[in-house]
Fold these 2 entries.
Entry 1:
Amino acid sequence: MAGTDKRMIEIGGAAPVVVLTAPQMGENIGAAARAMLNFGLTELRLVRPRDGWPNEKARAMASGADVVIDGVAVFDDLPAAVADCHFVAATTARPRDLLKAVADPADCVREMGRRIEAGQRCALLFGGERAGLASDDLVHADVIVTIPTNPGFASLNLAQSVLLMGYEWMRQTGAGGARRAAAPLETARPASKEDLFGLMAHLEGELEAAHYFFPPERAPVMKRNLRAIFARAGLTESETRSLRGVIKALAAKRRGE
Amino acid sequence: MAGTDKRMIEIGGAAPVVVLTAPQMGENIGAAARAMLNFGLTELRLVRPRDGWPNEKARAMASGADVVIDGVAVFDDLPAAVADCHFVAATTARPRDLLKAVADPADCVREMGRRIEAGQRCALLFGGERAGLASDDLVHADVIVTIPTNPGFASLNLAQSVLLMGYEWMRQTGAGGARRAAAPLETARPASKEDLFGLMAHLEGELEAAHYFFPPERAPVMKRNLRAIFARAGLTESETRSLRGVIKALAAKRRGE
C-alpha cells in the first residue's frame, strides 16, 4: 500500500479529509473507505461509530483500501473531529431549515481546491445511515453540499455520496495527467500527409477507371468530400496500408483479375 | 411510479440510453437501474443477460426503480442494441489497444447533451462484471470514456460506473435547469449505427467476394480494424451513401457499358 500512497501524492497532493458522524454498520464504513481511495482520498475520521473501532467488517468491506482503514482516527464529537480544519462541507440530500450556504459538489470542491492550495485543511462531512446529519452537526459546516439527483428518486447511500464527492475532487484536481496517459492514439504511428495523399490518389485513380465521377463537372466536389472523410478519421500509417489493400482487392475483382 | 416518470421528463427531457453487455448477476443489473434513476436515466437495454430476463433479483435490488426495470429491452447482440443510436460511448477502466478517441466523463456527457438537443440518440455502454467490454464491442463505440480514478486503486463496479456517468449527466443538464446552451451542431445528419453497420456489411461482403480476407483466420481482426476506421470517422448519413457508391463502383462488374 505504500506504493499506492506515493502515487496518490503525486496526483492530488493534499486532499480533503472525510468525516463520518455516528456511522452504524461497519460495512458502510468500509464501502466509504473504498470509494475514498478510488479517488485518492485517504484520511478518514469517525465520530462515535456505533460498533466501536477497529471494526473487522469495515476492513473486509474496504477490500484492499487498508491505507484508509489503518489511518482512521476516532473522535468523541464533531467539533473535535474538525478542529484542525478551515473549511467544512456537509453533504446532505435535503437542505434543512438552516441559514447556510448551499453549494453543488462542483462549486464545493472548487472552493476546497483553492483553500488546500493555500495550505488550509478541508473536510467533507457525512451523516450516519439512519439519521443523517443533525442540525447540531450542520452548525459546524461552512457550506451544505447537495448532490443534484432526480427529485422523484433521490436516495443515495453513504458510500455513493462519498464516491460522487471523491469523483468530483479527482475530476477537478487529478484528471489531467491520468487522461493524457490513457490516450491510445499516441502509441500508434500516425499517417503522414504523404501517406494520406498517396491513399487518396490511389482511390481516385481507381474510381476514375470505374467511371465513378459523374457528371464530370462534379468530380472536384466529390473528391473533396471523400478526402474530408479520410482526413477526419485520423488514420495511422498501417491503416492507410490496409485501406490501399482494400481498394486493390475491390478493383481487381471488378476487372476480373 | 407514474409520478416519478413525469417529473423526470420535466427535469432532463431526452437522456442517454444505458446498454449493459453480457451482464451476469441480476443484483448488479438492479443496482445499475437504481443508480440510473437517481440521476433521471430510465432507458436500459441488456445484451444477452446471463440469467435471462425478467430477473426477480434485479427487480429486488433496484428497490423501487421499477420504471427502469419494467422498460428493459433485451437484445441478441450489441449492433442490434445500438442500431437506432447516433453516438455510443463505451465506459471502460483501461483503454484497450484500439485506435479510438478517449474522453473523460465530462467531455463525453457534454457531447451527448449537444447531440441529444439536436435530436440524436446517444448510448452509454458498459461491459459485464467479469470480462468488461471486448474489443469487438468497443469497435461499435464512437468514444471510449475513462473515469479518472486513483491509478493505484482504480476498480469501480458496474453500478458505481453507472452512478458516476449519471451524476455527470445530471450535473451538466439537470441541476436547476442550468443546461448549457448547445454548441451549434454541424447541420449534416449523422449516420445512425444502422447506416454504419449496413455500410460495413456491404464492404465486407465485397471484400469476401474479392478474397481479401486471407488467411481466413485473420478475417475477424481485419474486419475489426476496418470497422474501427469508419466508426472513428464520425460519418454523416450522406457520407455513408457516398461510400457505398464508392464500394459499388470499385467492386461491381460493369454490365454492357
Note: The beta strands of chain B are 17-21, 44-47, 73-75, 87-91, 102-103, 122-126, 143-145.
Entry 2:
Amino acid sequence: MRYDPNVELPRHGYHRDGLTEGEIAEQAAAAGPLAASVRELIDAVVRTEIAPAELDDVRHQVEALTERLRAQQFDGSYGIRFGEAGDLRNWGNAVVGLKNAIAPPLHVHRDGTRVWADVELGAAYEGPAGLAHGGVSALLLDQMLGEAAAAARAPGMTGTLTLRYRAGTPLGTPLRLEAYAERTGSIKAIARGRLTTRESEPTLCVEAEGIFILPRWARGADLDAN
Amino acid sequence: MRYDPNVELPRHGYHRDGLTEGEIAEQAAAAGPLAASVRELIDAVVRTEIAPAELDDVRHQVEALTERLRAQQFDGSYGIRFGEAGDLRNWGNAVVGLKNAIAPPLHVHRDGTRVWADVELGAAYEGPAGLAHGGVSALLLDQMLGEAAAAARAPGMTGTLTLRYRAGTPLGTPLRLEAYAERTGSIKAIARGRLTTRESEPTLCVEAEGIFILPRWARGADLDAN
C-alpha cells in the first residue's frame, strides 16, 4: 500500500517519517534478524528442559537486553509509517510485522487479486495438543482476507469474520494460506480464504469468510491499495 | 480440567509425566517469569529506536541465550500434560500458556459457567494503527469460548467461530473478555462471548459466537471438564 505524500494523513497512528529507501533498508537489515532471533527464543522458552536455576539466569540476561533496547524507544505502538517514497511500513503488525516476534511472520504474495502465503507453525502456536490454536488460524486468515480486500482495491477493517474448522491444523508442517475478494464495493469487500496443508493432496483445515469495511475517516482519503 | 489418572490417555500429545505438585510449582516459578521477561523483550524489539549496530549486538546475545535453552529440550510442542494429581497443564498454549511469550497470557476466571478475563494488549498485538489486530481479538475470544464450553462440561475443539467487530479494540487500555455456553449437548456446545473496554461505560469492541465439538477420539474418554 502506498500513500500519496501530498495528502494529509488521516489519523493518529499514521506517521510520515520521511526515511529514505536506504535508511529503511538499513533498519530492516538489523531489526528483521533481531525479531527472527526472538522468535527462536520464544520457541526455546516453550521447549526447554534446563534446570530452574539456569532459567532464572537466562531471565536476568533477557531483562538486561530489554533494558538496553528500551534506552531509546517510542511511546505506544509502531503504527503505520510512510517514508520519503510513500511506501507503507506496518512493522509492528501481529501477523506480518518485520519487528514483531509474535508474527510468524507471513510473507504475503499477490497474484492479481489473489493473495497467498506459506508458513509453518512451531510450538508457540499450539492450542489442542500438537495442533495450531484455532484462534491462531483465525489470526492468520483475518490478515489474509484483509490483504485480499486491499489487493482488490477495497481495503478496510474487519467487519465480520466467520471461520469453519474442517480438520486440525498440524504444527511443524508446511501450510498454505490463500484468499481472494469475492465482491468489492466503494466501502465494503467480501473476502474468502482457506488454510490447507501444503502437500500433493492438501488437507483443508480452515475456511474463512469476512466482510471488510473502509472506516469513515478513510473514505475519500485517497488511500491507494497498491 | 483434570484427567482421571486411571484412564488411558487418548491421543498423541497428551503426556502423563507424574510430576508432584511441588515439582510443578518449582517449574512454574522459573518458567513463568522467564516467559514474562521474553514478553517484555518482544515489546521492546517492536518499540526500540537504538542504532542498527547495537541491534546486531543484542541479536547475538539473544542467539546465545536460545542456544543455552536448547541444550536440553523436548521435540515438538508442549502438548497437554498431567502430573501426579491429574491436573492439566497446557503451558505451551498460545493464549493461556505459562511458558508461551506469545500469550498475553490470559488468566481465565470462572464464575459458575461464565468465564471472564482481564487483559491489556501492548504494541506487539497491533493490526490497524493503534488498534489490536482483529485476528488477535479472534484468537483471545476463541480461547474464551472454548473455556466457556469446558466450564459447562462440554469441552471441545472449535467447529465454527463468528466474530462481529463493533468498534476498534484499543491497545494500551484495560479490556475485559467474557463468555458463556448458551447451549450444551453430549458432543456439541454453542458459546457466546464479547470483548469490551473496562470502563464505567464499556465500549463493545467484538462479539463472538462459536460451536465447539468434542473430537471423536475423546468421546467416552471420560475427560472431566472441571
Note: Residues 107 and 117 of chain A are 6 Å apart (CA to CA).
